[in-house]
Amino acid sequence: MDTVASLTKNVQGGDTMRILLIGATGMIGSRIATEARGRGHTVTGVTRSGADGTTAGDANDASAVAALAAGHDAVVLAITPGEDGMLGTGRAVFEALRTAGVRRLVVVGGAGSLEVAPGARLVDAPDFPPAWKEGALAQAALLDLLREEAGDLDWTYVSPAAEIAPGERTGNHRRGGDALLTDAEGRSRISAEDYADGLVTELEKGEAIRRRVTFAY
């Protein structure tokens, strides 16, 4: 049976998923953990240190991630780019999922690769903050890698709005694709709590397989 079809049936039937969350204590990862557990899912949190009740693990170690992923229904990758970018991490996680027999992968992505016009990315705009550019380009490269090398996995790349910060969970937000979403005032923003709500809903429903989605107000 197809992995995504199975997961969707489980959620609709009232069952729960077993989720391996890599990067479980970050600003976004911690909120994904809270949202998923609040819906009754079992979350195994992974961090480099193993602190705060998480399991120690390195996302760049394919063998270690495969061992952790075994027996889970899905893996969520919620880490920020390191000094070497995201390509090595991406390839290690892809290999780990294949070894563990887990097809469902949801990636916490960046907003920089969202389009502000056809073929024009936010990260390439002249006024894009220089301090954010390296990380945005690394996240964009990971999206390209998913499209090029992970066609055998049921992946979804989830971009936030241009502005994301801790706030209120309203459950009232919009869902888009490759274009940057803005509100009536021209701002692109979302709380980390509402982003987590959107991501976990996508994880459950599996409506954007091998595609990118974005959430914003």
UniProtKB/TrEMBL annotation:
Residues 23-204 form the NAD(P)-binding domain. Transmembrane segments: none annotated. InterPro entries: NAD(P)-bd_dom (IPR016040), NAD(P)-bd_dom_sf (IPR036291), Polyketide_Oxido-like (IPR051606). Coiled coil: none annotated. GO terms for molecular function: oxidoreductase activity, acting on the CH-NH group of donors, NAD or NADP as acceptor. Pfam families: NAD_binding_10. It comes from the Bacteria. This is NAD(P)-binding domain-containing protein. It comes from Actinoallomurus iriomotensis.
